[in-house]
Amino acid sequence: MSQSYNRGLIEDFGRWREFEAGMWAWIFHKFTGWVLIGYLFTHIAVLSTGIPAAGASEAAIAAGNDVYTQTIVSLEGLLLVRILEVGLLAVAVFHMLNGTRLLLTDLGIGLDAQDKSFYASLVLTGAITVASVPTFIAGAF
Amino acid sequence: MSTQIPKQTEESTEAETETEPASKGEERRAEKRRRAAERRQQRPEEEAEKAAADESTVELKVFRYDPQVEGKQEPRFDTFHVPFTKGMTVLDALMYARDTYDSSLTFRHSCRQAVCGSDAMFVNGGQKLACKTQISDLEEPVRVEPLPHAEVTKDLVVDMEHFYEQMEAVEPYFQTDEYPDGDLEEQRQDRENREKIKMSTRCIWCGACMSSCNVAAGDTEYLGPAAINKAYRCAMDGREGEEMKQKRLEIIEQEHGVWRCQTQFSCTEVCPKDIPLTEHIQELKREAVKNNLKFW
Fold first, then answer.
1. What is d(CA B103, CA B116) in angstroms, rounded to the nearest whole number?
2. Which residue intervals make up region (Disordered) (chain B) (predicted)?
């Protein structure tokens, strides 16, 4: 081969309009996976700031004056946090449902219906997210 | 009948008188040739104009690139208007464009009936076998590009060397240490086993699956769907025997073997022969796990 034209990686995601169900499932699974990992570390970091509460007096804990309770209450008071929590639930639910789909794929079950099971997990995620909104948003406004 | 005879003689005498001066005839022939050449040169342009105005034509946008001609080294898209005929495939349209408008348009094709696997292309954003893709099923303009994730040699021709290397890495041929007893005994495969490997034998080495696979694009060591399917075809063949199957599994379960597959199902979607590639890869994964798990 003397000369050839290398089109690079642009054709990978440059043609996202033509992606099929299985490809979208893969992208969403990767994305939600990274979001969950990111959340996990943030979760640990934020809650670690509440560790001193372990040494607080019982009266302070009962009255809700300790660092831990204060942190949680102030966070939950923010509308942005409430909305992000809905998003977190959506991400986690999709990751679980699609994870189940992938488990079945690994077992060789329902490979012919892989696109339908992806759509099903999307619809279920949507339904569960919508149903959770009242619980998460209650009292935020 | 009889009325036609004098006419014929008349013609023949005319021809004779025409050819009498040899130099004159040659002159005329030369003139004729020159005119034909002119017409041949004009024809593509005229045809193209006519076709562009016509409504029953298909608009093709074809990827063009030629590293050896200055001015064509920068990839571009050429538009061809091809008269539509019922049952026309993408390959038919390309051949019409090449024969009528631009003889430098380059693409691979051979059998034209989805057997040889030389004309896999990227048509309207999907890996398709041009000879079995109906124009009527496609949205216009039809965009024809060379296979993604492969280096373009010229126009629609890509370098398939890497694909063939991966195919050969799995030793895609029947091997066995178990021979039947008698010298003239046949080595038979039972019906169930044949059914099991039936779909995997359909592969025509077109490379569409390899081109559609994102994992194979990022990891050049990954065997790819076609090669793994070939390995499946051999490993699952009951006639090869246990020992050979172990050898096959060793190739399959390498780091860049079946484990790279992330079940995007792209290969299964694009396979022109409808081979359930992902299913075969998944089955080999389970086979590899079973082969290595020991509970004692």
1. 23
2. 1-56
CB contacts under 8 A, B 48-77 vs A, are: 65, 67-68, 75
Q: Are B148 and A18 a contacting pair at CB < 8 A?
A: no
Q: Are residues B272 and B151 part of one domain?
A: no
Q: Is A8 on the interface with B (CB under 8 A)?
A: no
CATH number at residue B89: 3.10.20.30
ipTM of predicted complex? 0.83
CB contact under 8 A, B262 and A21: no
Tell me how far apart the alpha carbons of residues A90 and A103 are, in angstroms, rounded to a whole number: 20
Which regions in chain B score pLDDT beneath 70?
A: 1-22, 40, 42-44, 47, 50-55, 296
Domain residues for B108?
53-157
Q: How far apart are CA A68 and CA A53, in angstroms?
A: 6
Residue B254 and residue B145 share a domain: no
Cα(B132)–Cα(B87) distance, integer angstroms = 10
Assess whether B248 and B288 both reside in one domain.
Answer: yes
Residue A113 pLDDT: 92
To 10 degrees, what angle do helices B161-169 and B225-235 make?
A: 30
Total domains in the fold of chain A: 1
Q: Give A6-60 pLDDT, tens digit per residue.
A: 665 546 666 777 788 999 999 999 999 999 999 999 999 999 998 888 888 888 8
pLDDT the model gives residue A94? 97
Rounded to whole angstroms, the Cα distance separating A111 from A93 reads: 21
Q: In what order do the strands lie in the sheet with B57-64?
A: B76-83, B57-64, B142-145, B120-123, B126-129
For residue A2, being part of any structural domain is answered with no
Total-model pTM: 0.81
- For residues A59-86, average pLDDT: 88
* Torsion angles phi and psi, residue B213, rounded to 5: -85, 120
Q: What is the reported pLDDT for B7?
A: 45
Q: Are residues B235 and B115 in the same domain?
A: no
Residue A80 belongs to some domain of the structure: yes
